[in-house]
Recover the amino acids of this structure.
């Protein structure tokens, strides 16, 4: 990669400018998240300090403790009898619900779409050319368009106020994309190896499990990531489908902290961090696949 | 097709068909059927308080829409918010992708950090936005004020034009990474020889960008722009969670309008009719996409 | 998956059970936490879902009901779900559309009226008989909470007026007169004087697209003698009136002395502006005192609440009173009997009613004479320093009570709930303060919207 035109000095200046730009841009883009992290780690008194402190002067896990222990939001001096009814007491339940529906819908979406995409690329039957395009249409469909009719389907199936309604609802959002992505992926996997194994007498299932699945892993991972992000982040379906407070996922649950006459910003920012953490952890592990997967799926069919 | 028999006693072809069945059933029950219902609902008058008694009203819901100035306001605002979001996302996305494409030590760390907003839940961003842009106690006003850029607090979410700008900012912040991801993936496939050849010919940085990079990116960009346009135009959560369509109705788009009609106004049919119009927009976009996509396929 | 043979017959139910079963096996956790839905409970056990406003008081009531359950229905657990004012409509519509409303809901009267006229509520005359019809405090009637065509549908939870809340230290410093004697002109003048002399917002009202705005506007409109509908005359819309224009003009004249963000303010921001000391006056319910005492003792020390300023011509000083009550949705509600007994139980145990009132003084005012007169009621520290204010909320406000569902107490109007769902009043205000429409044009616009509500939902009122 050596280039005669590029002197050492020029290279250094260029690198410095690039790094400076990168650092600035990264700081600006990450600032909202850093600021919420910083706020969440401050004791309540410091949160409203003027001038605001960028880095907490005093670190405190007060906000997180309140979330996990379900602190009473409605403290009123002079009140002798205090009911334990404040929304934060459900935080852990919401977290569990979010986790359950995210995994549930991801597993279903990925399994169904992998099977289907394999079938579409390896067998011939009527409709095999249209189905992927319809999936694409489904991928572009905003959920607001069919949320109410889908809700009525859930009502009919007796699934409202039940985490299944969310699992299946999220499948309806994620399945088209997973399908599209897996279809694109399987088209890229050469069939020769499979055919050789089939001719040698291996069953289709065995071929699928032992040969195809390992090769499809990068696609499956990308589909799973997409699915998890969508399911974890959804607000609308949960808002409409779930009736009772202890069945809510995080996204709708934490909005309860906003609905009184007192916004506890520390609590809000701590919940923001807690909601982002699982995805952040996931993101660090699979960042590489994200680029590969979206490169393959979203753009190039 | 090679013939084989699986242990379950099914023929190879039956296995193949069995593989597609779960997809078809799920797609029909949970996507196609509700969408069809949504279209059907557009021709009925339905009160969510009495979901039982729906009456067929023909095109009344559409006439209602076309007569409602808020519908048109929402349509125009959605267009403004979409165009400005997309323009910013595309320009920023390409610029940042080019920056992230430079082979520097530690570049992957930057890549990771810049892609991160894409996975942050909308609820989280909306919360953080409301905290940062709070006129009295928010960090944004404080920073601008102390650096002398503004004289008095800016009411980010309660001044109509600025509220629109705030929602655009949120959208750009969250979705520029999507553009970066797509452009970056494409950049990695452009053969370096093209650049080397151009350098030998004495082409400058700008010329190389214009003559090599941009044409190579054209197809990706068209696709990304179409995708993002469709999604942005029909977005619900970003706006609902940040401004609920306010102040006034200045950040209403069709999705918010549809939601409000269905729930607050007890006119589910009108909400559904709005959804049908949104689907129309989507279809036009999809057809465009498929044309571009097919075209690209033939080329390669 | 290979067991899934139902592919040819597209029965949704079979598909679902099979897919569900196979997927459950695949899910890492192995099981999805699915609580049995109350609607299908066969035995009388399970969770009784209770809606409440944000705040501790509904939780107290639910604790009282749980005391009943422990003694009489050990399998039942009453559980509170907090619904913010902005979410009530979404929640209600989706719950009802799903046929799964909560088993007991705490709602303010305009919404209760709408639901009872829709035939969605269970009559509660039997509960009222148990509670005792003669207990109501002076100045109120059972119908204020919800009576329709001779039947009672709502059990009172509390009454809850918003009043004029004032920082007395500022009023005294500037030598302004006693707020209890004010007319609209004095209020305007006070706001202006404070704004000019103290360089702070004189008054903070909600002017956003939300219910708080509607409530403030309604009280002012009523004082001016205006109304939305004429209940006595086939619910004709009477909103396009000089009184409406006058009210809108008055709000517009107050606006220069409000915080600049007021055009987006809702309940929360108004409370914030008082508690943080940003503004010197607000219209608010009593809950500000609780938060101020906890967060800003200096502010708490200096605030007092009064009946609203009088309208100069009519002399009226109406407030908005929620008349918040308990209603029982009747569709798909397996716990109607239990809920009735539990409500009757806690409403006849005076110590629970006192705890309820005490949980947020002076926001939730007692409804029954015996509670209001019980000496234990005074056993709360706020009575030592804020007795006049508390009495204004609890008692003196009632002479001037009104709300959109029962305008000027001239009769119940079920259309008001729909008006609030659509935020018509708030939008009318916003036409003036945000879009700079002439008040007369905004009044016409509002009247048109009200007319379409009347037209679409006339069946409710005949």
């Amino acid at each position: 990669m050596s280039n005669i035109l590029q002197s050492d000095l020029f290279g250094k200046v260029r690198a410095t400018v690039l790094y400076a730009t990168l650092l600035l841009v990264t700081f600006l883009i990450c600032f909202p998240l850093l600021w919420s992290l910083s706020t969440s780690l401050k004791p309540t008194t410091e949160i409203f300090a003027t001038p605001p402190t960028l880095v907490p002067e005093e670190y405190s896990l007060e906000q997180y403790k309140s979330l996990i222990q379900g602190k009473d939001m409605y403290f009123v001096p002079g009140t002798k009898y205090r009911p334990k009814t404040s929304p934060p007491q459900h935080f852990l339940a919401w977290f569990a619900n979010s986790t359950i529906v995210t995994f549930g819908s991801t597993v279903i979406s990925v399994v169904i779409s992998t099977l289907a995409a394999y079938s579409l690329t390896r067998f011939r039957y009527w409709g095999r050319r249209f189905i992927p395009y319809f999936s694409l249409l489904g991928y572009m469909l905003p959920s607001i368009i069919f949320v109410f009719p889908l809700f009525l389907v859930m009502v009919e199936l007796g699934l409202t106020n039940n985490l299944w309604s969310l699992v299946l609802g999220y499948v309806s959002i994620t399945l088209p994309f997973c399908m599209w992505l897996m279809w694109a992926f399987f088209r890229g996997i050469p069939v020769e190896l499979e055919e050789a194994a089939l001719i040698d007498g291996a069953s289709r299932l065995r071929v699928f499990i032992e040969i195809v699945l390992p090769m499809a892993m990068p696609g499956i991972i990308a589909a799973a990531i997409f699915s998890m992000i969508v399911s974890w982040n959804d607000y609308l379906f949960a808002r409409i489908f779930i009736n009772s407070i202890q069945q809510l996922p995080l996204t709708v649950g934490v909005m309860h902290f906003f609905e009184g006459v007192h916004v506890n910003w520390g609590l809000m920012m701590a919940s923001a961090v807690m909601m982002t953490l699982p995805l952040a952890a996931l993101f660090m592990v699979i960042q590489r696949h994200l680029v590969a997967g979206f490169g393959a799926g979203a753009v190039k069919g | 097709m090679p013939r084989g028999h699986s242990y379950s006693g099914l023929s190879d072809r039956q296995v193949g068909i069995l593989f597609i069945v779960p997809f078809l059933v799920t797609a029909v029950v949970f996507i196609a059927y509700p969408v069809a219902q949504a279209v059907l609902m557009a021709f009925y008058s339905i009160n969510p308080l009495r979901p039982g008694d729906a009456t067929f009203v023909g095109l009344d819901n559409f006439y209602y829409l076309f007569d409602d100035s808020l519908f048109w306001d929402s349509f125009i605002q959605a267009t403004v918010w979409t165009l400005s979001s997309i323009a910013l996302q595309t320009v920023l996305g390409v610029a940042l992708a080019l920056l992230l494409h430079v082979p520097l030590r530690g570049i992957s760390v930057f890549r990771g950090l810049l892609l991160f907003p894409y996975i942050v839940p909308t609820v989280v961003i909306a919360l953080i936005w409301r905290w940062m842009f709070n006129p009295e106690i928010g960090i944004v006003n404080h920073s601008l004020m102390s650096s002398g850029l503004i004289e008095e607090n800016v009411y980010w979410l309660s001044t109509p034009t600025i509220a629109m700008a705030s929602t655009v900012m949120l959208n750009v912040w969250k979705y520029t990474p999507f553009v970066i991801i797509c452009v970056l993936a494409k950049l990695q496939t452009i053969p370096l020889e093209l650049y080397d050849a151009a350098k030998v010919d004495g082409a400058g940085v700008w010329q190389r960008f214009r003559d090599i990079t941009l044409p190579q990116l054209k197809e990706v960009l068209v696709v990304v722009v179409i995708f993002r346009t469709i999604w942005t135009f029909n977005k619900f959560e970003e706006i609902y969670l940040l401004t609920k369509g306010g102040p006034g109705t200045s950040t209403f788009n069709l999705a918010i309008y549809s939601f409000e009609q269905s729930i607050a106004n007890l006119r589910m049919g009108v909400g559904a009719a709005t959804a049908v119009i949104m689907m129309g927009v989507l279809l036009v976009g999809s057809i465009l996409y498929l044309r571009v996509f097919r075209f690209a396929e033939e080329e390669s | 998956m290979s067991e899934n043979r139902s592919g040819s017959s597209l029965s949704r139910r079979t598909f679902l059970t099979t897919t569900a079963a196979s997927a459950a096996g695949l899910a890492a956790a192995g099981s999805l936490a699915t609580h049995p839905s109350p609607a299908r409970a066969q035995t009388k056990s399970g969770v009784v879902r209770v809606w409440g406003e944000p705040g501790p008081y509904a939780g107290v009531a639910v604790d009282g009901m749980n005391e009943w359950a422990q003694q009489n229905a050990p399998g039942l657990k009453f559980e509170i779900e907090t619904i913010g004012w902005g979410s009530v409509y979404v929640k209600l519509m989706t719950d009802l559309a799903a046929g799964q409303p909560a088993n007991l809901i705490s709602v303010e009267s305009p919404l209760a009226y709408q639901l009872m006229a829709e035939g969605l509520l269970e009559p509660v005359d039997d509960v009222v008989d148990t509670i005792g019809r003669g207990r109501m405090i002076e100045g109120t009637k059972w119908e204020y909470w919800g009576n329709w065509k001779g039947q009672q549908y709502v059990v009172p939870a509390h009454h809850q007026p918003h009043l004029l809340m004032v920082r007395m230290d500022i009023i005294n410093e500037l030598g302004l007169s006693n707020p209890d004697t004010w007319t609209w002109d004095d209020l305007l003048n006070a706001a202006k004087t404070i704004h000019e002399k103290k360089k702070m917002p004189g008054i903070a009202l909600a002017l956003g697209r939300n219910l708080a705005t509607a409530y403030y506007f309604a009280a002012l409109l009523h004082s001016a003698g205006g109304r939305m509908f004429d209940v006595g005359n086939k619910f004709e819309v009477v909103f396009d009136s000089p009184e409406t224009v006058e009210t809108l003009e008055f709000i517009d004249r107050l606006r220069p002395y409000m915080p600049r963000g007021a055009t987006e303010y809702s309940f929360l921001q108004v409370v914030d502006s008082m508690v943080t000391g940003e503004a010197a006056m607000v219209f608010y319910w009593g809950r500000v005192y609780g938060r101020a005492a906890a967060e800003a003792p200096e502010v708490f020390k200096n605030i007092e609440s009064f009946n609203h300023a009088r309208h100069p011509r009519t002399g009226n000083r109406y407030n908005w009173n929620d008349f918040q009550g308990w209603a029982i949705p009747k569709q798909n509600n397996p716990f109607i009997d239990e809920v009735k007994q539990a409500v009757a139980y806690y409403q006849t145990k005076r110590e629970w009613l006192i705890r309820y009132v005490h949980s947020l003084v002076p926001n939730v005012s007692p409804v029954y004479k015996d509670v209001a007169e019980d000496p234990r009621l005074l056993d709360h520290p706020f009575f030592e320093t804020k007795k006049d204010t508390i009495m204004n909320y609890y008692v003196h406000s009632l002479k001037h009570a009104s709300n959109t569902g029962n305008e000027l107490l001239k009769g119940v109007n079920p259309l008001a709930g729909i008006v609030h769902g659509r935020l018509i009043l708030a939008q009318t205000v916003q036409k003036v303060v945000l879009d700079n429409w002439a008040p007369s044009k905004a009044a016409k616009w509002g009247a048109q919207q009200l007319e379409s509500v009347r037209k679409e939902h006339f069946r409710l009122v005949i």
Remarks:
- The two ends of chain C are 57 Å apart (CA to CA).
- The longest strand of chain C covers residues 46-52.
- Residues 347 and 353 of chain C are 7 Å apart (CA to CA).
- Chain C has two domains: 43-158+322-398, 163-320+422-460.
